[in-house]
Please model this.
Amino acid sequence: MPSTEIAVLVESFNESEHSSVDRLAGALESAERLASRYGDARVILADSGDNARIAELVERRFPGIQRISAGVRDYDAAKTLAAAAADAEIVAFLDGDCRPLGDDWLEALTEPIRSRTAIATAGFTAYEGGWLSRVLSVMDFGFLLPRTERAVGCYASNNAAFAADALAETPAPDGDMRSRCFAHAQLLLRKGTPMRLVPAAAVRHEQLPLIEERLRRGWDLVAAARVDPELREARWLRAGVLAAPLFYLDALRWDARRTLSGGGEFGLGPMGRLAALPVMAAVRLVDLAGIVAALRGRPVPGT
Model:
């Protein structure tokens, strides 16, 4: 039997990519505080970087946190390795660049798994900041709309939980994407064990470098179609670089639908939603550059 019911797994990959040790410390502090409210829950750090300051941070400020050196520079693989070593019934993922919004985050996120009504759950994520951050939240996390408890076909890897045995049986698939959360959620959906959205389990995500993140997002749109040939977008790959407008326009279609129907969940008022549409079209042009690079077989930063 596992030695604990719940392990909160925080990752350090983002520290090496765009975040900071201070931000990671904040995530660890939040995770430790919330875990202490829930029985024998413990916190584990999946350390996939090579920053000696992180090891020193854990030793000095968080001696009760288990640090697992993943030994791989791969976001999903590092988390999967640490989850396997967690010796827990349930593993909750909280990224080092995110902060839970409420003291009930862990309890809410894991309740469907504890009650055996789901084997995996997805929380609700949005970026910190003002109006533009809210617009980007719709673009990057709009797949979590509508914000109601339901089965979902994708999740944010920064805010999710899994029954450990189910995660071991169906891990995130291999692929070129930085995060394979979409492909993973689709596998669970097709097995008849879909992720369950828990609207109350909310986190705020650190703002990201705009150009680099948009290039990677565009690149990942193509990579997702390569990882999962059952997606309708996989057919577009046969057109090569000529498929770029299809990926771009499809993303804009989803942006518009999600903004107009559910933008309020990300803090956008009626006028803010209308103003967001042309901004999204402009920002997606950077995504388009990443799409073209992926279709031409060229990397972009972060891939």
In short: The chain has eleven helices and nine strands. The beta strands are 4-11, 42-47, 66-69, 88-95, 98-100, 120-127, 151-152, 159-163, 195-205. Residues 117 and 137 are 28 Å apart (CA to CA).
